[in-house]
Amino acid sequence: MDGVIDMRVVFGGAFNPPTKAHLEVYRFLSRKLPVERFIFLPVSDRYKKKGLAADHHRLRMLEIMTEDLPDVEVSDMEMQDESFKGTYTSLRRLSRPDLPTAFVVGADHLRGLPRWKDAEKLLREFEIIVLNRDDEDLEAVIGQDAVLAGHRENIRVFEEFSFPVSASSFRKHKDENLVTPGVYAYIVENGLYDGG
Predict the structure, then answer these.
(1) How far is residue 140 from each of residues 2, 12, 137, 159, measured CA to CA in Å?
(2) What's the pTM?
(3) How many other CB atoms sit within 10 Å of the CB of residue 18?
(4) Are 129 and 29 in contact (CB under 8 A)?
(5) Under DSSP, is residue 40 helix (H, G, I), strand (E, B) or coil?
(6) What are phi and psi of 99, to 5 degrees?
(7) What residues contact 120, with CB distance under 8 A and at least 6 apart?
């Protein structure tokens, strides 16, 4: 990728638990983009999401999953915050002035993005990378929303991404094939997700 400016890519989420699909997002985007740093940004357990494992568990599982990836960072920044400041503020704090920063979302979050805190500033100042899921017509989703359509030049869509594994599926079935061996061992050792 000669002549292409390196970039920082931030992937936020619950990672409850981090699965092979989350790892595949990193691998896929590292093949497609000049990624200087890929940052996993887990939300705080103050996010009040049902069945969310404690911060220290999700952070440790991400560290285990990515320990052999030198260009990956796991950030506990939002976990350290007293309250949720929003994705825009988090990206401002994680970005560097000399490199563009992009934020990754799945297609399932694209429709709701215009209602996020500081959505206009987020869409104006950062690139949004959208990975398709369930064969959504993402161009139609963007075109039908005035906020998204108004910032179309900052939204990069990858229609070809496909990796049908979800954290909710793991929590339901406890299928060890959905997570890496190290993450699975940690889950068993700590008795996580036993409640269903």
Answers:
(1) 33, 24, 5, 13
(2) 0.93
(3) 27
(4) yes
(5) strand
(6) -135, 140
(7) 147, 151
Cβ 142 vs Cβ 152: under 8 Å = yes
State the pLDDT at residue 137: 87
DSSP state of 157: E
Q: Are 104 and 11 in contact (CB under 8 A)?
A: yes
Look at residue 54 in the predicted model and tell me its pLDDT: 94
The set of long-range contacts for 92-96, using a CB threshold of 8 Å and a minimum separation of 24, is 92/125, 94/8, 94/10, 94/39, 94/41, 95/8, 95/126, 96/8
Separation CA 103–CA 88 (nearest Å): 10
- Kindly state the tokens that stand for 3: 């002549």
Distances (CA, A) of 55 to 63, 74, 135, 187: 12, 12, 32, 14
Q: Where are the alpha helices (DSSP H) in 95-180?
A: 107-110, 119-125, 138-143, 146-150, 167-173
Task: Render the burial of 121-143: b for 16+ CB within 10 Å, e for the rest.
Answer: ebbebbbbbbbbbeebebeebbe
Parts of the chain with a pLDDT under 50? 1-2
> What domains are defined for the chain?
7-190 (3.40.50.620)
Helix (H) or strand (E) holding 14: none
Helix (H, G, I), strand (E, B) or coil at 121: helix
34-60, pLDDT tens digit by residue?
Answer: 999 999 999 998 767 778 999 999 999
